[in-house]
Amino acid sequence: MGGHSLAETSQLPINYDVVKDVSQTCSACHGLRYLDRAQGYDTSEEWSHLITSMVSLPRPRLLAISEYLATQYPHKPNKAPRLITGDTDIVIDEWVTPTLGQRTRDPIEAPDGSIWWTGMWASLVGRLDPRTGEMREYPLPSSARPHSIVPDDNGFIWYTGNSNSTIGRLDPTNGQIREYTTQARDPHTAVFHPNGNLYFTSQHSNMLGRLDPSSGKITEIETRRKPYGIKVGNGGDLFIAFNGTNAIGRMTPQTLDISYYVVPDERTRIRRLDIDSKGDVWFVNSSLGKIGKLEIATGAVTQWDSPSGPLSHPYSMTVIDDIVWYNESGMRPDALVRFDPTTEKFQSWAVPSGIGIIRHTWKTREGDLLIHQSSSNRVGRVRIGN
Predict the structure, then answer these.
(1) Cβ of 197: how many Cβ atoms within 10 Å?
(2) Is 143 part of a structural domain of the chain?
């Protein structure tokens, strides 16, 4: 299969067991269930292209594993997204990050225009110069496993230590790190407020927190199940997505008092949200395959079905010039979707390397969208046209 010579694969030991090798190689980084859930590929070349973005293998083993996977896990057309054509043009640039298997995710733009990402499984953060393609990675404490990052105005990069109960600050000029210990065991997503404080969610600890960088003081409160994404609203209050209940939270930054907006249907689970120019909240209803808008003034919720249906699992969410951008993470390839609230029309594109799930997106100062593919170690930039 795939036109490879017998000589290449014959370099393997006579007693080589490809099934055992696949099991051990793949399970070293993720569960084998992901093979069943993947879109699959019909050729060994396609599987080889994917594998080399995850792990480095000797060529004979790579060929043997790729040929086995092409036979056992061919393409599944039922996982293909329903793509909608439209008038908007985009260009997607992608870069493969240096350390394989790091689970590249959650890119952001720093004040100097550089793009940063977190390599959660390798406990690192990385910097990309999008003009030159030059990349550099900064090691963090090995137990940190940073979930997300956020820049401050002084050039520091702050990360959430999802596995060691810390909020960390990296100084890119010298690589020095300062850690702040949290009560919550798993800081998740963070955002800076105009008041200078850092606010963060801790999903499995069911907590929200505030860090004062000037004093290092951390204040944390308990909240409803699985707080996930967090954004600063136009009036200064913070809005929180909940991945464990059908609600959106609203927190006062000074007192940390929190109230809740109920989103219809108890099955609703929300991962990410963002704010439009009117101050209303847009969100992904991940569990039901919808996107929605919460009108802050009235509490009214309006929802729309995502093009690929109830199993599309919308995940990320960024509003750019009142246009809603998100992805359908349940599809293969991962689909990037544009929704115009004025016309209520969708448009969507297949992400070129869309097998790794966009988990978080970021608006750049030029109005581009930063994306990533966590499974294949890619960070991307979507240049938006008309």
Answers:
(1) 18
(2) no
Please give the residue range of the domain that contains residue 63: 6-78
Quick check: is 329 in a domain?
no
Classify residue 32: in a domain, yes or no: yes
Q: Where are the alpha helices (DSSP H) in 28-145?
A: 33-37, 44-51, 59-72
Q: CA 100 → CA 97, 106, 183, 216, 275, distances in Å?
A: 7, 16, 32, 34, 34
Name residue, tokens 């136009």.
234
What is the total count of domains within the chain? Answer: 1
Q: Which of 370, 361, 351, 374 is nearest to 101 (CA)?
A: 374
Give the closest residue to 272 by CA, choosing from 349, 367, 357. 357
State how far Cα 276 lies from the chain centre.
Answer: 21
Averages of pLDDT over each 10 residues, the chain, 386 residues: 54 88 85 80 86 88 91 87 97 96 96 97 97 98 98 97 98 97 98 98 98 98 98 98 98 98 98 98 98 97 98 98 97 95 98 88 98 93 91
Residue 83 domain-assigned (yes or no): no
Torsion sign over Cα 137, 138, 143, 144: negative
**Cβ atoms of 375 and 81 closer than 8 Å:** no
